[in-house]
Sequence to fold (355 residues):
Amino acid sequence: MSIADLARPEIRSLAPYASARALADSAGILLNANENPWPPQGDGGLRLNRYPEPQPAELKKKLANYYGVAAEQLLLTRGSDEGIDLLMRAFVHPGADRVITCPPCFGMYALSARIQGAKVVEVPLGESEDDFELDPEALADTGPAKLLFLCSPNNPTGNGLDAETVLGLARDYQGAGLVVLDEAYIEFSERPSLASRVAQQPNLVVLRTLSKAFGLAGCRLGALIAHPEVIELLRRIIPPYPLPTPAVAAAVVALDPEAVAARREQIDLLMDDKRRLVQALESHSAIRHVWPGEANFVLVRADDGPALVRAAAAAGIRLRDQSAQPGLADCVRITLGTPEENTALIEFMNAWKSA
Fold:
């Protein structure tokens, strides 16, 4: 069967909206898009009076090269959130199809599924002494679903997933659904990305983002990597101009080889300093457990997690209370900052310890 057969039939038969830029490029005299012919003050040569390319060719080429995939396997989106939403709308029939999540995990998987009217099935991660573990047997017992969402490294627990485990699940779901692997934090991990495996496993979808490692959270730029038939389906329902011109320009610069090398050095510095923060947290009397994880954050269980978050906020330091997540009572997620910011956190923790 074609992977497109898994999509909603009304999406398969949908004719996409043909925008002015999709029908013709931006060369010549532009009288086809009802634009203002004069750019605004402070335009800086960006031509902000003109609609952007639906899928900017230069950025797409650079990202395809960076991810090691073919351009036709790539869809540029407004962060990973849009990729998640597009998959829901294209493949999940409201009130009928199931979506599986493995909490504790990124909350947008379940939220987007519920907005779409999906039946959300939760298969929790198993908490061990030092890690949170995916349970393939529990997933098998649960049965198939139209979409299975996995995250590696996982947010907020930081654990990574073995490549063969993910690929095995994708093979199990062949003909029944898609396995969606969120790799938002993969640049911080030593694990290889599975983006290049999409070519061999057509029902595997990989989500990537420029928000984390590339420091472009304010640009809202993500990428969905999938079989070309999946990409073609999603292009039918994505808005005609999803990516703002200034965001695209910033991403193109960030993907220059020199910029990528400089960012790699920053990531190495960040992860090196992580050891110092983890050591300070592990020696703190009010911290019961530390999960260092593989990403740019640390998960801890405190004697009183919400109290820690409140005290840190009063000191001008914002932490993330995870107590509402299944199995994470009194847990707090701490994002790595600059060495100076990490020092400030450690000093706060020492003062809080003696308070």
Q: What stands out?
A: The chain has a mean pLDDT of 95. The chain has two domains: 3-25+43-255, 259-354. The CA atoms of residues 302 and 308 lie 8 Å apart. The longest strand covers residues 204-209.
